[in-house]
Structure formats: structure tokens, C-alpha cells
Write a structure and sequence with these properties.
Number of helices: 1
CATH topology: Chondroitinase Ac, Chain A, domain 3
Structural class: mainly beta
Oligomer: single chain
């Protein structure tokens, strides 16, 4: 009889665990597969590079910046230009840190290390020109961050520019309060 009750109890627990959770107190998931990133065209030729990166020593009291400025042959315009500038204001953080900015040339996202939060947000200018914007609605483009749990949120910024005729997309003064994955979403 004890065995029967144990099996019955385990069965009830198993079935209860398989039930849908439609609780109004359950957290809302902002995404299931991540944002729909605006991607960069694959490089022509035999290149296997999948990112650009720059590392610099930044004094948080004085401020500073990291820059990436490059181009490659690809896309519907024949040439893709990539520019990224991350500016740290005076007193953004305590001490001096070696900071790396990595730009993924597949999904066009920017990541940073080490993990940091700032007293004053860093400001990111990010621009891609010569990319295929077919199917992109300029009015729905946003600049977002994705945290390690996969959730994403809009980032404060001064301006987003989308020029379909040039394949250009740009964010000015994107506020970066901490390091996560940042990029353009459709």
C-alpha cells in the first residue's frame, strides 16, 4: 500500500509540474528567441574573421574612448563601412580598467568586457553603411540591449538614422549604463 501511495503521489507531482503556468504573478518574457537583429552582410572572399575588437586602458575619473573604423567588400553596395565609438565621461567609474569592445560582423551587435556598471552612462555612436535593409521598416528600428538571461530592452539615445537608399543605419549617443550585448533590432 505504501508503494502504491508513493507512486500515486509522484504521479500527481509530475502531472502538476507539466501544467501550463498562466499565473498573473509569473514574470513576463520579453522575448523567446532574442531580438530580430539587423545583420551585416557576409564578407566576400576567404576571410573567416567574425568580429572586430579594440582594447584600451580607460581611467574612469578622466574619461576616454574606444573606436572601431573599418570597411570590407560585401553587400548590395559592394562596400560595408563600420564605425563604433564608445565615449566615457569624466567620473564614469572609479579607477582604471582595461576595456574591450567587440563588434560581431554577423549580427552587428556590440559586446564589452569586463562586466561593469557606470556612475555616468558611456555613450555609443554606432554606424553601418552599405548593408541590405530590405524588409526593414525605418519607423520600427530600435537600439536595444540583451542581458545574459536573454531579455532585451530599448536603450536611451539621441537619434537613430535609417537611410534605405544608402543601406545606412546609425545610433547617436546610445546610453550604455552597463556592459551587455547591444545592437539594432527591426
Amino acid at each position: 500500500m505504501k508503494t502504491f501511495l508513493s507512486i500515486l503521489t509522484l504521479g500527481i507531482i509530475f502531472l502538476a509540474g507539466c501544467a501550463d503556468n498562466d499565473s498573473i504573478v509569473a514574470p513576463e518574457n520579453n522575448q523567446t528567441s532574442g531580438p530580430n537583429w539587423i545583420t551585416l552582410p557576409q564578407q566576400n572572399g576567404a576571410s573567416v574573421e567574425t568580429e572586430w575588437s579594440v582594447t584600451g586602458e580607460i581611467n574612469g575619473t578622466e574619461g576616454g574612448e574606444l573606436k572601431i573604423d573599418d570597411a570590407y567588400f560585401a553587400g548590395p553596395f559592394g562596400n560595408v563601412k563600420v564605425k563604433a565609438k564608445l565615449k566615457f565621461k569624466h567620473n564614469s567609474f572609479q579607477g582604471t580598467e582595461t576595456i574591450t569592445m567587440v563588434l560581431d560582423n554577423v549580427n552587428g551587435t556590440v559586446t564589452y568586457s569586463p562586466h561593469m556598471n557606470f556612475n555616468k552612462p558611456a555613450e555609443l555612436d554606432l554606424e553601418f553603411q552599405g548593408i541590405d535593409l530590405t524588409g526593414v521598416n525605418p519607423d520600427s528600428v530600435d537600439f536595444v540591449y540583451q542581458n545574459p538571461d536573454g531579455y532585451f530592452e530599448s536603450v536611451d539615445y539621441k537619434k537613430i538614422t535609417v537611410k534605405m537608399e544608402d543601406g545606412k543605419i546609425k545610433v547617436e549617443n546610445g546610453k550604455i549604463p552597463h556592459f551587455s550585448r547591444y545592437g539594432f533590432s527591426r
